[in-house]
Amino acid sequence: MSIKLLEVKNLTTEFKTDKKSLTAVKNVSFYVNQGEVVGLVGESGSGKSVTSLSVLRLLPENGYISEGEVLLSQNNILNLDQKSIRNIRGSEIAMIFQDPMSSLNPVIKVGEQLMECTMLHLKHTKKEAKAHAIEMIKQVGISAPEDVFNRYPHQLSGGMSQRIMIAMALSCNPKVLIADEPTTALDVTIQAQVLDLITEMKEQSNIGVLLITHDLGVVAEMCDRVIVMYCGRIVESAEVSCLFENPLHPYTQGLIASVPKIGSGSDILPYIKGRVPDLSQMPIGCKFAPRCDGAIEKCFIEEPLLIQLDNQRQCRCHLVSERGERNA
Amino acid sequence: MRETLVELKNVRKQFLASKKFMEEKKYVKAINGVSFEIYKGETLAIVGESGCGKSTTGRAINKLIDIDEGEVWFDHENITNYSSHMMKPVRSKMQMVFQDPYGSLNPRMKIRDIVSEPLLVHTNLSKKERYQKAKELLEIVGLNEGHLRRYAHEFSGGQRQRIGIARALTVNPKLIIADEPVSALDVSIQAQVINLFKELQREFHLTYLFISHDLSVVEHISDRIGVMYLGHLVEITAKEQLYKNPLHPYTQALLSAIPIADPAKKKKRIILKGDIPNPIDLPVGCPFNTRCMHVQDKCYKIVPQLQEAASGHKVACHLI
Amino acid sequence: MKVNTEIKKKQEDYKFESPMIELSRKFLKKKVATVSFFFILFLIILAIFQPTPYDISQTDYSNTLSKPSAEHWFGTDEYGRDIFSRIVYGTKLSLTVAIVGVTVGAVIGSILGLIAGYYRGIPEMIIMRTCDVLLAFPGLLLAIGIVAIIGPGLINVVIAIAIYGIPNFTRIIRSSTLAIKELLYVEASQSIGVSDLRLLFKHIFPGTVPALIVSYTMRLGTAIITAASLSFLGFGASPSNPDWGAMLSSGRNYIGIAPHMLFYPGLAIFLTVLGFNLLGDGLRDTLDPKLD
């Protein structure tokens, strides 16, 4: 039995607007084990990024967590004050973002930004921190670490900056790494390099990775387990091979089908009709019902529950749960 | 022999990068001698990573930028030195669809004015006739009459891209230059828009230049594919050929780098070393020599020319 | 499937707010700005309807320099004229001078700014260097210089304010034009084949309007001070005209015995300028998309 590093229980995040509060994430529960890559997949507006920001408590000012627990090595970090949470960020749990260029401070040398974290959390002296920073730059596969140490962020390419971000995230030996669309801004050939690096770093330091992405290709290559989100809810979660072989939720099915595949030779791409509903005008029943081909009347009236199918598999769909009951 | 609609002959374009006092001027070499043709009724996809000059190539064809060297032919006319006045009738025959559906629609105009604007510029139709045509086109791309009076910000990304496509169609163009039209969209919406492009091509006999960074997207839409790297066209061939038998080492690496949405098909990837070189200081010789795994002495000296390796399959590589 | 279509219909029917309503709601949330907006509105109503209890030139030598009372709210001046009535009339003068002057400056400045930002090159150099020269003068000195050349009088004050405002508007509009010109929808229109003139006025100019509105409001405040200063110095309205600056000027001699002669015109200038500045601030917060 592997160790649960990060566990999120019934997380609900809301945003206050002029008129009312909107629920961006509702009742989301999942966990990340040691040495495991968990994918959080969804389209824009699915709540995947809000989930990760909630975990780190980095929500924008009008966002708040109304319910739930975030357990980091069994401690609920939602109860911590600002100071303790700041200590945890970077040292226990680290994050890398989509846009590496804007995540680095443009007026401070790359090396100094790397030193900051270890001096703060590991109480390194300046000399130790510098040695450690150069070591980290070397580890993320940059050939001339001393040279890069003295550069400013704008002198680095996109792929290089993302490597630095990874080095920075891992420099204080966190237990969990949250990667929010880490390769979306990068070119395909550079993406391949960075994904390889993340896998390598994970194996080296045995951390848990929560990988947030919209790209099912990345999920298939990287993840052990996948959580599919739609409209702020988990609609399906499964082991990666199960999910791609036999997707249960109609949304997952549609999503997998609509990915263009090389060599399929098909003329018309399968697609999901309609579009993701706006947060302020959510459908009453199942959030996917208006776009679902198999929707029955029940789907428009009652929101289905997330049913545990077997120990690794969950699905939120009336059709699936009814089928399950019939079988049982 | 198929009829040619667009032909580029050895086109070059560089942009001034920096002009420092007492220093040599630096230029970004965006396109370095690109030649290809687009046949009537086909879809040519130009694929490459950022900074490869694919967008600049698209803009060179409709003269949103002026080229430094070479010739651009459209519909048997040499439009290379056309003034903006002479371009006006040509522009109505080639329309553009942009990558960012949020930025490409004027936020202060109603949809019916956006869609009917090309008609205002190129025809003498009355306002009523223009709005009527706008309405018809919105219906063709899957929107309805109720959307006519709204503003762009009220629409989702996919809907906006449909509006952009409707605008491009109003003046019955021959060529549509689509610059990364689906890369800003979610997967499920992406498929809708690609299918729409295909339907419209059949219905209106359009020719497409489809610019993309994603080899997996263009397979579903293109007839031929050209791969660009650092302002050079390195390979161009029919779609089936490119996926089955890619000849240029860069094309091979690009194909193998695409993550496949099927964990059962885990494959061995060719991981390219290093970054794309800066287009200000191009490598001497083959542009790909800094990252290529089959590099030879010759590659550091001579720029390989695009040559026919098989019928209709052109590659620029010394090893072929 | 009946339910399905019904829900779909409901979603289609959902109406989006027009941008104007959204903006005004955002503006009304800013209390200070809203108060100044209604204050300015009140001034404009005063200027139009002129609710003056006394004739502004009606003298009353039995009642000169009297303190504020129920009869004369703001007291009387050295000729026994009612100061309240003269201030109300002065509102009309100040607002007209400021609005006409700033509007002329804004129109000319915007056109120059659009040309400079859109065409770049030589036109830009000529326009912007001329602006630099004009901006190098300390504000009031330029206005005094202009009036000194073309002679005193209210019309000439208007001209001075207009010229004084042009370089500011040119700069602001040029910089917004430069930014908007790079936006994708402008390039999209170019690719359609839209003419330069249409591109400038249909696609680029509307984008500069928020910046224009904000600086227009702010300039109104400055213009009122400039006009009052010119009149105070004797370059503007003739002393018999109840201009606020001229009233301050004539009250100066009686500062020891009748301070109210200075206090009320001064207060009028102060409140009006403050009102315009606060309104401008509020508009900036409302219209600036960066603050969202």
Automatic annotation (TrEMBL), chain A:
> Which PROSITE patterns does the record match to this protein?
ABC_TRANSPORTER_1, ABC_TRANSPORTER_2
> InterPro entries in the record, alphabetically?
AAA+_ATPase, ABC_Ni/Peptide_Import, ABC_transporter-like_ATP-bd, ABC_transporter-like_CS, Oligopep_ABC_C, P-loop_NTPase
Q: Identify the domain of life.
A: Bacteria
Positions the record marks as coiled coil are none
Its subcellular locations are: Cell membrane
Per UniProt, residues of the ABC transporter domain are: 6-256
Against SMART domains, the record matches this protein to: AAA
- Membrane topology, from the record: Peripheral membrane protein
Keywords from the named record: ATP-binding, Cell membrane, Membrane, Nucleotide-binding, Transport
The molecular function GO annotations come to: ATP binding; ATP hydrolysis activity
Tell me a GO biological process for this protein.
Answer: peptide transport
Q: One GO cellular component term, please give it.
A: plasma membrane
According to its UniProt record, what is one Pfam family this protein matches? oligo_HPY
The entry assigns this protein to a family as follows: Belongs to the ABC transporter superfamily.
The name of this protein is Peptide/nickel transport system ATP-binding protein
Q: Which organism is it from?
A: Alkaliphilus peptidifermentans DSM 18978
UniProtKB/TrEMBL annotation, chain B:
One Pfam family in the UniProt entry: oligo_HPY
Q: Which Gene3D superfamilies match?
A: P-loop containing nucleotide triphosphate hydrolases
Q: InterPro entries per the record?
A: AAA+_ATPase, ABC_transp_ATP-bind, ABC_transporter-like_ATP-bd, ABC_transporter-like_CS, Oligopep_ABC_C, P-loop_NTPase
Asked if the keyword Transport belongs to this entry, the reply reads: yes
Q: Which family does it belong to?
A: Belongs to the ABC transporter superfamily.
NCBIfam families in UniProt: oligo_HPY, PRK11308.1
Molecular function per GO? ATP binding; ATP hydrolysis activity
Signal sequence interval, chain numbering: none
Q: Which UniProt keywords apply?
A: ATP-binding, Nucleotide-binding, Transport
Protein name per its UniProtKB record: Oligopeptide transport system ATP-binding protein
* GO biological process, alphabetically ordered: peptide transport; transmembrane transport
Q: Which residues form the ABC transporter domain?
A: 6-255
Which species is the source of this protein? Alkaliphilus peptidifermentans DSM 18978
Automatic annotation (TrEMBL), chain C:
Output the InterPro entries linked to this UniProt entry: BP-dependent_transpt_permease, MetI-like, MetI-like_sf, OppC_N
Q: What is its main location?
A: membrane
Protein name, please? Glutathione transport system permease protein GsiD
Main function: Part of the ABC transporter complex GsiABCD involved in glutathione import. Probably responsible for the translocation of the substrate across the membrane.
Q: Which SUPFAM superfamilies match?
A: MetI-like
Family matches, as Pfam families? BPD_transp_1 (PF00528), OppC_N (PF12911)
Name the domain of life this protein comes from. Bacteria
Give the lineage. Bacteria, Bacillati, Bacillota, Clostridia, Peptostreptococcales
One cellular component (GO) term of this entry: plasma membrane
Q: List, in alphabetical order, the Gene Ontology terms for molecular function in this entry.
A: dipeptide transmembrane transporter activity
Which family, according to the similarity comment? Belongs to the binding-protein-dependent transport system permease family.
